[in-house]
Specification:
The protein is an alpha/beta fold. The chain is 43% helix and 18% strand. The protein is built from 13 helices and twelve strands. The strands form two sheets. The chain has a seven-stranded mixed sheet, sandwiched between helices. A five-stranded parallel sheet has the order 2-1-3-4-5, with helices on both faces. Helix 3 (78-87) crosses helix 4.
Length: 327
Amino acid sequence: MRRRDFIKLIAGSIAAWPLAARAQQPAMPVIGFLQSGSPEPNVNRVAGFRKGLGEAGYVEGKNVAIEYRWAESRYDRLPAMAADLASRKVAVITAPASTPAALAAKAATTTIPIVFAVGSDPIAMGLVASLNRPGSNATGVSFQTVELMAKRLGMLRELAPGANHFVALVDPHTAYTEAEVKDLQASASALGLPIEILRASTGREIDAAFAKLVQNPGGALLVGPDTVFTNRRAQIVTLVTRHAVPAIYYAREFAEIGGLMSYGPNIVNVYQQTGIYVGRVLKGEKPAEMPVEQPTKFELVVNLNTARALGVAIPNTLLALADEVIE
């Protein structure tokens, strides 16, 4: 072999080494992120998810990629979005704080791991066989916000002792709505007050619900846990304040923007725990063997500024229980 040809051969081999090395590196895993809401109202929650991933050793864009799918409160879009993620063979699908998204993911695949976070009972929803041993391709966090309805209603009764009836705002399109309504009716009956159920899933329907609410004065409002209401929280809090209705919400984000009182798990922390679970799945753990997590702490947030503006006196018993008082 001539010296010139030999040098070309060696140079070509050296140039090919980085390409060969890159070819041998494993592909970056992809997370399918499926949510029934919108990105803007959930910025802090998604930051919590990324924080959880980071605790598990994964950083978006560095050693993991995330494909986001937001249904913008149009639940009918979720099945196609879930099917699209499944067809892309993502490493795991996560559906944080969205029962409809979790159900859509579950229907789309029986093999790709699913990590959910739901406020409803995951056993009753058919997501898992049991909390300790899910037994399928899905696991995650059950943050019990639906189960806390009776507790919220009791707090609302204490907050507004002069109310002559309860009003509940619910989304008619979620899988757990009817069970939610039955629980509310039973709890209201036990507290000795009637309850009116208002159903809404769009901004226009929320406006119509409040127009109906003010026609029957003397009510105290409970806003049911739902992605639609999280996305529309500014609208809801504005209407509640305008009509001076005592109200309780399911997430602190409402109290932070002027809602009177909220009671429930910290949803940012729920997203964080979901991220940790996704990281564990990426490392090889099987959802069937990962117990469904449940929060051990629920937080009561009271906005005293709003109470003063509405002329509502917060009972000392509730102030004593409050994890945070905004003033």
